[in-house]
Task: structure prediction
Amino acid sequence: MTALPAPGRAGTGQRDALALIGLVREAVASRIPRHVLHLRLARLAPRLRHDHHHRLVREALEPVLRPSRARLFELPDGDLVVVAPPDSPHLKEAEAALLTLLAMETAEPALAVLRLPEEAAALLAAVEAALAPVPAAPPGAPEEGARFTAARLGMLERTLAGASLAAFHRHHPVCRLRPGAERPEAESLHLRLALPELGAALGASTDPATAPWLRRRLRRLLDRRLLAELARPEEARRLGPAGLCLSVASLTSAEFLRFDEALGAAGRARTTIGLLPEDILADPEEFAFAREFCRARGFRLALEATAAPPLPLDRLGLDLLWLRWSPDLPRIGESLRATLPEDRERVVLTGVDGAGAIGWGWEEGITLFEGRLLRPKGSSA
Amino acid sequence: MTVTTGHTGEAARPAPALPLLPAVRRLLPGAAGRVALRLPPGGPLTGAPHRRQVARMLLQEAALSGGGEVFETAGGELLLLGAAGPAAARLAATLAGLVGDAAGPEIWRLPADGPRLLAWAEAASLSPPAAPVPDAAAPGLAGLEPLLEALPLDRVLRRHAILHHAPGAPPLLAARRLRFSRGALAAELGPLAGDADLLRHAEDRLAATLPARLPGPGQDPPDGPLLLPLPLGGPAVPAPRRGLVGVLPLAAAASPAALAATRAALARAGWGLALAGLDAVALRLVPLAALAADLLLLRWSPAMTDRAVVAALRGMPAAKLVLTGCDGPEAMEWGRSQGLNHFAGPHVEALLAAARLAACPARSDRWRGEGCTRAQCAERAAATGPIPRAACRNPGLLARLLPPAAA
Result:
C-alpha cells in the first residue's frame, strides 16, 4: 500500500477504508501511538483538484512513505490518510510542506493531524463519512438496520473485553466560579467515559438509545470496567474529590464493593455518585436499597438530569443535582426554576461549553460548573 | 477477621457440604458477653445474590471493627458470630435502614442464646464456593432477536381483566389488559433471561410488534378498552384504532417532555397512555399529579398501607388509578378504603372465574366429575392461544370474562 495510488479508483478506496478501520481498531486495542495525516482532498476547491496538485501532494508524501513504516490509504471520496509512527521526522516535514501547499484558498483546513489512539473517533467518523454519506434518518421508528440489537451488543461486548478503555476516560474539572472572580477554583473532578467516541471507535454505528434495556446492560459493563480500574490501590490513592455517574445496578456489584474498600472512609466522603432518572424509575426499590447503602458508606449522591429534573431532589433523598447544560435551558426557565433545589450550592451545571452557560448559571444563582473547557487555577492542562 | 465459606481450592466439582456446627462450637466459648447476628434466608437482605453480597460486606466490616467471624450458609443465611454488642447494634441499624426498616437481623446474646444458636447451626451447612459471576459477553446474545421473531406470541402473551368495583354498584369489566408473562418469556429465553435487562429488552421487542398481531375480536370483543404494552425504546406511533391504551413502564417518565410528546402522539391515533410499575417505593419518589398519563397502574404490596404512600395518593382522581397485583381480599379492601375502584391481579382473576363458573350452563358437569375447576377457567381466560381456549365449551362467556348479570 506504500505505492501512491492514482486518483479515482473506487475499489481501492473501499478496500483501503476497511483496512484503515481495522488499523484504527488495532491501535485502540493495543494503545500503540500513531500519528495520522488526513488530507481532505475531497474538500478542495475544484480548481485545486487537478493532477498537478495531486502530483505535488504525492511528492510531499514520498519522504514519509519511503523509509518508514508509514502506510497510505486512499478513501473512496479521494481523501488520503497517512498513518505513521509518532516520532517520524519525515512526517513533520511532510506536514509543513502540505500545509503550505493546501492552505491556499480553502475555506476549511484541508489537512488534519490526528493522534491515535486518542483521536480514533474523529478519524473513524471521517472514514465512515467517506464510505457512505449517511442520509438524515426519517422521524419515527428506527429502521431495522439502525436499531441497536442484542447481536450488536454481543459484538460490542466481545470487542470491549479485549480493549483498554483508558483512552476514553475523561476528567472534567468541577469549578467554583463566581461572577467577577478572576479564575475558577477547582472543587473536584468528574470522571466520565467518552461514550460517543467509544462507540465510534468500536464501530458501533447504531445508537444504543434505540434499545434502552440493552443500553442499561452496556452501561453496567462499562461501569464495572471503570470501577475495576479505579479500585487499583494506586488509582484509589490518587483520586481526590471526584464524581462519577453509575447505573443503580452497579452500586451493588462486586467491583463497586472493591472500589468502596480501596477508597476507605475518607475517600468515600470525597466521592459523589451520579444517578440517572431513568435508572431510578426503572426499579425504584433497587434504587432505594442502593441509595441507603451508599449513604451508609459515606458517599454523596447526585441526580444527573438533562432539562428539568422529573423528580424533586428531596423526595429522592439525594444530595446534589448535576444539571446538564443545553441552550434550551433558558427557554424553560420558569418550570425549571420550580424544580431546582432552593439551595443552589446543591446544583452543578455540567457540560459547560462557553460563556453563555456560565452566564445563565449565574443568573440562576449557580456557581459550580463542570466542563472540559474550564481551566482551574494552577492547572497546567 | 476471617471469612469462612466452603472454599476448597479450584474445585470444578461441587464441593461437599461443610457443616457449620464445628465452627460454632469452636467459637462459642470465646464469645461469652458478645452476640451473634443472623440474617434469615430469603429476606430483603439475603434473597437476591447482589444484596446478600452487600450485606456480607457490611458484616465483614463490622467483624473488622467489633470482632467476630462471618459465615454464609448454603441456605443463603448470613451469620456474624462473636461481635461486640454495640458494633452489632450499629450494624443491625444500618442493615434495617437499607430495606426501609422492613426486616432487621436477629440478634442472639451469648451465652444465654447459645442453645438456640447451636440448634440452628446443627441443621445449617456452609455455602459452596461462590460461582464466578458471568462476565461480559453472554453467549447467545446474537440469537436473541431471531428467537423473538420466531416466537409465537400466544406462548408468552396473557390477558387479564381490570375490574370496576365501586361501593353500591355491581362489578363491571372495565378493561382487558394484554401483557407478557415474565415467567413464560424467561422459559423461552433460557439463560439469557438471567439478565433482567435482556428480559425487558425481549418484552420491548415483542411489544413493538404487538399492535399488528393483536388477538382477534373472538377473544377480545371490542366492548371496552384494551391495554397493551408499548416498547420503552421509542414507541412507534401505532395505527389509528380507538379504545386502545398503551402501557409504558415508569422509566418512560424520566423525560417528562418525551412522555408528554408520546402521549400526544398516541392521543392523535385514538390511543390512551398508561404508566405501570407504581409500587410503594415509587409512590414515595414520584409526584403522581405531574405524570402525563391517562391511567396509572399502582402495584399492590403490603407496604402500600404505609402512611407516606397513602398521602401520595390523596387528591388523585379514582378514575385514573388501577390497583394491580391484588393477590387477596385485603388488597381490594385496602384499595376501596382509599377510594380506589379499579382492580386487577390474581385475586380478581379468581373472582371472575368463580362468577363465570356460576353462570356457565355447563357447570352441572362439575358434579358428574367432568366440569372445569376455577383455576382451569382462569387459565383459559388468560390464554391468548387457541389450544387452551378450545377446551372451554362456553367460549362466548370466556371471551366476556365477566357474565353480564354477575353481582
